[in-house]
């Protein structure tokens, strides 16, 4: 049984509710198949990032493996209170900026 086709915008959060009781509020279904529509504009930037976190959940390193990246590694250090203390911007192993 086809219960229809529905379009969801990517910039919002949506929910689908399945119920065992049919009334005017819910649709009864045993499965829902979500299909991505890739007919839109293609993202050709091909960015590639990797993230490393410490045991406290702090971001300690971000690497940008994207072609032509001006900075390929960002290293962060934190105080004992988990506040950001220093950010290093590194390119090919050489520190370019520190804040």
Automatic annotation (TrEMBL):
The lineage of its organism: Bacteria, Bacillati, Bacillota, Bacilli, Bacillales. This is YD repeat-containing protein. InterPro entries: YD. It comes from Planifilum fimeticola.
